[in-house]
């Protein structure tokens, strides 16, 4: 008798009928569990929000000031942050790229904030980047 899938695309593993396996889904990678439930590892929503904020900020800065190099740099750093968040979503200990991106932005924007003493945007991005660094370090613990 063929095993009946409990969830769409999920089947019991052949070695044991108590282990349920589901392939990766749009919600993130899944892990096999004992019993009739499936744990879906959550996406790094904080990381994706941070990446969206950086990307949106670079587009807004371009519209206000018209600096094409700032737009390109902002989009690139936003892409790196989003890819880092994707990697953290797949493996909670894979924080290298996200940590590098947040450290880079904290350094650049921290220097800008020190020079200009303006909270928007340099102080805000530097502060959020420092919080992101702190969060990523806590993920490693």
TrEMBL record:
The keyword Transmembrane helix applies. The keyword 4Fe-4S does not apply. Keywords: Endoplasmic reticulum, Membrane, Mitochondrion, Transmembrane, Transmembrane helix. It is found in: Endoplasmic reticulum membrane; Mitochondrion membrane. It comes from the Eukaryota. It holds the Pfam family Tmemb_14. Its main location: endoplasmic reticulum. The chain crosses the membrane at residues 41-60, 67-85, 97-113, 120-140. InterPro entries: TMEM14, TMEM14_sf. This is Transmembrane protein 14A.
């Amino acid at each position: 008798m063929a095993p009946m899938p409990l969830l769409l695309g999920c089947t019991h593993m052949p070695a044991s009928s108590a282990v349920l396996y589901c392939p990766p889904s749009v919600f993130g990678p899944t892990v096999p569990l004992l019993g009739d439930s499936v744990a879906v590892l959550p996406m790094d929503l904080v990381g994706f929000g941070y990446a969206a904020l950086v990307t949106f900020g670079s587009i807004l800065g371009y519209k206000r000031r018209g600096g094409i190099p700032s737009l390109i740099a902002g989009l690139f750093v936003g892409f790196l942050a989003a890819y880092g968040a994707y990697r953290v979503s797949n493996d909670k200990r894979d924080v290298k790229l996200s940590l590098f991106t947040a450290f880079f932005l904290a350094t650049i924007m921290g220097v800008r904030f020190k020079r200009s003493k303006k909270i928007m945007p340099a102080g805000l991005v530097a502060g959020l980047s420092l919080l992101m660094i702190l969060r990523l370090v806590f993920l490693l613990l």
